[in-house]
Amino acid sequence: MSKSTLTMDELLAGSEVKAVSAGDVVEGTVTAVKKNEVWIDLGAQGVGVVLRREIGHGQVLEEGQTVTVSVIDPEMDEGHALLSMKRAVKDRGWDELQRIFDAGEIIEVVAYDANRGGLLVELEGIRGFLPVSQLAAGHYPRVSGADKDEILQKLAALTNIPLRVRVLDVSRKDNKLIFSEKEAVKDDMQSRFAELKVGDTVEGVVTGVIDFGAFVNVDGIEGLIHISEISWERVDNPRNYVKVGENVKAKIIAIDKDRLSLSLKQMSEDPWLSEVKAFNKGDVVEGKVTRITPFGAFVQLSASVEALVHVSEMSDDETVDPEKLFQLNEKKQFKVLDVDTENRKIALSLKSAKASK
Prior knowledge:
The protein is an alpha+beta fold. It has seven helices and 20 strands.
C-alpha cells in the first residue's frame, strides 16, 4: 500500500500521537478562511475543516489564529476531519455561564437580533434571551397602546450595542439561558433610591407618553408622571404637554419599590388657590359648561377654577335631565353655594341664581 493511500489512523499508528476521535475537543491553527469554510491545522493530528454554519455568530477568524474545535467526524472521504467551533465552545460555555450565574457577576453582552418579546443574545457560544420585562428603565420600550411594530422598532435599536446584564436563569438540560438588565442595575438603583426622598426635585428624559401619563428616565431610575400630575389644568391628552426625548424637571411625590411617582404641576404654584379668592359663598357668577354627566354639570369659572352644579341644584323638577338643560360651552349664571378650599371644590346652583334675579 502506498503512503498516499494510508488512512490517518494508519499514519499515526505506532506513534505517540493519538488520533482524534468524534467528540474530542482539540486546538488548532487557522490556515485558510474561505466564504463557506475555514481550514484548521491540527498539527500531527492532521487537518480539518469547519463549515460556516459551525462557527459562532459574529465570530471573526484570521489566518494564524489559534482556535478550539470539536471533532464531528475524524476522517471524511477526502481524508480530513470535520470540525465544529460551536460544539467546542458549548460545553465550556455552559460551565462558564453556570459559574457567572452562581457568582452573580455583571457581564456585558451585545444582542444580535430582536423580536417583539425581547433581545436575542449569544454568549459563550450559547444563544440566550433578554425579555422586554427584564430591560432597565432607560431601555424599556414605552409605546402607546402596546403597538407591536413600534415595540419591535425600539428593541431593534438596542441590537449591536453593549448592555450590562446578569444571568437570570441558566439550564443546560433545558437549553435555557435568560439575561436581565434590570438585575444588573438593581444594586446601583437601590443606592440611588436611598439618596432620594419625597419632595426632591429631579431631572429626567421623557421615554414614553401614554394615555394615562408619561414615563421619565431619571438617571436610570424609572419615574411616572400620572396624567393628574402633568398640569394644574384639566389634561385630556398628555401628548399635548410632554414629548418623548424632552428633558423635564419634576418633583418626587412618592417612592415605590422600583419607581418614582413624579409631578410636573407641583413645580409651580397652584393657580387655583389664587383664582378661587375671587369667588365667595352667595355670589352670582357666570360660568361655561365644560362637562355634562347624569349627576350634574361641571362649570369653568376661570382659567383654573372649575365648579359643580349638582342635578339637585338645577331645577325644582326632580326628573330634570342635565343633557337637555345644558349644552357644552354654554354660558349661564350660577349662585355659589359653597367654597371648599381644602378639597378644591366649589358647589353651584342654577335654580338659586334664577330665584335671586
